[in-house]
Design a protein that fits this description.
7 helices, Rossmann fold, alpha/beta, single chain, 34% helix, binds magnesium ion, 7-stranded mixed β-sheet, binds guanosine-5'-triphosphate
Length: 201
């Protein structure tokens, strides 16, 4: 009986937390995406005016709670000199969201190179990876059908980890919830390999 109640008490008072790092080139829309996630997950959240978001220098964080778990997001700066800081977060993250500016054809190869360097890192082996083709609201942007084959060239580096390419617009909110739900399923499925952090509510 004691075991039953102590188990129930722990279930009610402890919170499982997963950490997800948001990566991608500067201007891809990572911080705008995180604002869209917060707005989608919390009715009371007052979203920052997108035009007031400035380039991230260092780390921008945000937390959302859903279906009994908390997700801590680490939104990092994407400028070339800041990309050297990305790997400091790899060992502690449970998932990666990689954001692409689908409207910027000139930088898609640069984005792919940064992506390859990131997934080559052993610390990210087996970690679920969500690739977001962002800025789908812009005319003439690359759709998933165009983006996917470019990133699929790295299938040998991606290996058996969960990986998905999805279309989103961080500005309009299109695709935000679908992507997040996919990531949450993967985080839970992978929790034996990368267990969540457990803390008190
Ligand atoms: N049209 C459109 N613009 C977007 C979208 N997402 C972001 N932007 C714009 O893209 C620009 C860069 O957005 P940020 O969110 O600051 O980009 P970031 O990836 O965080 O950039 P760094 O912090 O420098 O790495 C801003 O002008 C945003 O308004 C989108 O879905 N559609
Ligand atoms: Mg940013």
């Amino acid at each position: 009986m004691y075991t039953l109640f102590s188990g129930l008490y722990r279930y009610l008072t402890q919170n499982e937390e997963y950490c997800v790092v948001i990566l991608g080139l500067d201007d891809a829309g990572k911080t705008t995406y995180l604002e869209a996630v917060k707005a989608a997950m919390s009715k009371d959240y007052k979203r920052m005016d997108p035009s007031r978001i400035t380039p991230t220098v260092g780390l921008n964080t945000g937390q959302v709670e859903t279906t009994g778990i908390a997700i801590q997001f680490w939104d990092l700066g994407g400028q070339a000199e800041l990309q050297t800081l990305w790997d400091k977060y790899y060992s502690e993250c449970h998932g990666v969201i990689y954001v692409i500016d689908s409207h910027d054809r000139d930088r898609i190869e640069e984005s792919k190179e940064a992506f390859d360097k990131m997934i080559r890192n052993e610390l990210l082996q087996g970690v679920p990876l969500l690739v977001l083709a962002n800025k789908q609201d812009l005319p003439d942007c690359m759709g998933v059908r165009e983006v996917k084959p470019i990133f699929n060239q790295s299938a040998h580096l991606i290996g058996p980890r969960d990986c998905m390419v999805m279309p989103v617009s961080a500005l309009t909110g299109e695709g935000i919830v679908e992507g997040l739900n996919w990531m949450i399923d993967c985080l839970k499925r992978n929790s034996e390999v990368r267990p969540p952090n457990v803390g008190d509510r």
